[in-house]
Amino acid sequence: MIKVEPPQGDDTRAWGPPFQMSNAARESSYFLGVNRSKRSVILNRKSSEGQEAARRLIAGSDVVAKNFRPGTFERLGFGWDALHAENPRLICASVPGFGQDGPYRDRAGHDVTTQGMGGLMSDNGEAGHGPLRVGVAVADVFSGSLITQAILAALYQRKRTGKGERLDMNLLESVIALGTNQVSRYLTTGEVPVAIGNGHRGTAPYGTLRCQDGFINVAAGNGFAVAQILPGAGPHRVGRRSPPDDQRGPGQPPGGPGRAAPGRTGPLDPRRDHAAPGKSGRAVRRSQQRGAVNNMAEVFADPHVQARKVAVTLPHASLGKATVTSPPWDIGGAKPEVRRAPPTLGQH
Fold first, then answer.
1. What residues have CB less than 8 Å from 323, skipping those under 6 apart?
2. What is the per-residue pLDDT across 33-88, written as a single tens digit (0 to 9) for each?
3. What distance in Å separates the CA atoms of residue 6 and residue 27, rounded to the nearest whole number?
4. What is the Cα gyration radius of the chain?
5. How many CB atoms lie within 10 A of CB 73?
6. pLDDT tens-digit profile of 278-313?
7. Which residue, 90, 118, 143, 230, could crosslink 174 as a Cys pair with Cβ 3.0–4.6 Å?
8. What is the pTM of this model?
9. What's the Cα-to-Cα distance from 214 to each of 52, 124, 210, 293, rounded to whole Å?
10. CB–CB of 110/97 below 8 Å?
11. What are the backbone angles phi and psi of residue 282, rounded to the nearest 5°?
């Protein structure tokens, strides 16, 4: 993958601190985190030489991905019709903020603004508090994942038709798609979702509970799981409350009038609800395989994460070495090799 950057570099190269440092250089940790295995070339798209270089790159490419506002690439002479005429097999993917048409077409899109406009911030966080942004750039990341799915489908289609395709994804609709059950709940009932912390509107017990030494997460997806989690069957059973009206047995579906009816079980409140009071989270997790609530140091100290080789250290052109995450999938029973560290500006 070739990352085409302007002469001053991608904006995220300057996003810091923190930076990884060496005697010769510094690199933004943000940039390093999202640019593994790429090559970097510098291109001034406003110059005639830069435009000619871009044409040569595009002519030899399978896929071109861009995140300009609608019309920007076209004004440089790289509209879909022109590119498709020159390279009929080309797949051209675009990820603006708001799409190729509509009243907001020409607006710049940013993660935080589209999280807000897409409804995600309104039902995120604790009850009674203001809107809260998800701590990572989910609009950026999820739109990238969705456009990747579309690119893979277009590549598959091209094997049958021999022709490329124009693909468009945008940040706002990615956030709305990410809403999944919250969106469908509103479309079904007209009820506007509000923040309920770590609870779940469709099933209980589900959420975060306090232990002697921290927190754990519990999630009951069916009647059997409820029987395993709630009090009465061992020293580490979770919670103080039990749903009074739920008579279903193992294997029956969650939710419904018993376990999740408003005013009955409700969301778990870590300030009030406790998991086996006086017991350590480690003991409860061992006995029930409950989920830990890890900080980032604990994530990468976890023996499973280490066994899966989630963090990899690679030689880096200016830093000497850089540590990044590996791809989160296996192919043929193994993780794909990360072949190069994130590039320095114009390295290739």
1. 311, 312, 313, 314
2. 999 999 999 999 889 999 999 999 999 999 999 988 888 888 888 999 999 999 99
3. 17
4. 25
5. 20
6. 555 555 555 455 567 777 888 888 888 898 888 999
7. 143
8. 0.77
9. 59, 22, 6, 8
10. yes
11. -65, -40
Task: Please report which helix (H) or strand (E) contains residue 175, including its range.
Answer: helix 171-178
Q: CB of 36 within 8 A of CB of 89?
A: no
Are the C-beta atoms of 92 and 78 separated by less than 8 Å? no
Tokens coding 55:
């044409």
Q: Residue 261, CB half-sphere, CA atoms under 13 Å: how many?
A: 10
Q: What size, in residues, is the chain? A: 348
- Find tokens 């030494």 and name the residue: 213
Looking up tokens 């830069």, which residue turns up?
Answer: 50
What CA–CA distance (Å, rounded) separates 137 from 140?
A: 5
Residue 345 tokens read as: 């500006």
Cα–Cα separations (whole angstroms), residue 248 to 7, 87, 134, 232, 238: 64, 61, 35, 17, 19
CB 230 within 8 A of CB 242: yes
Under a CB-based contact definition with an 8 Å cutoff, are residues 267 and 200 in contact? yes
- Catalytic site residue 140? yes
DSSP 123: G
CB 301 within 8 A of CB 233: no
Location of structure tokens 């091209």: 158
Catalytic residue among 111, 140, 246, 273: 140
Q: Which residues contact 6 (CB under 8 A, 6 or more apart)?
A: 42, 43, 44, 45
Interatomic CA distance for residues 245 and 151, integer angstroms: 49
The residue written with tokens 């469908």 in the block is: 184
Q: What are the beta bridge partners of residue 166?
A: 92
Among 126, 135, 128, smallest CA distance to 269 is for 126
Listed residue (9, 196, 168, 192) closest to 92, CA to CA? 168
Q: What are phi and psi of 160, to 5 degrees?
A: -90, -35
Residue type, 23: N
Answer for the pair 342, 35: CB distance below 8 angstroms, yes or no: yes
**Contact of 138 with 115, CB cutoff 8 Å:** yes
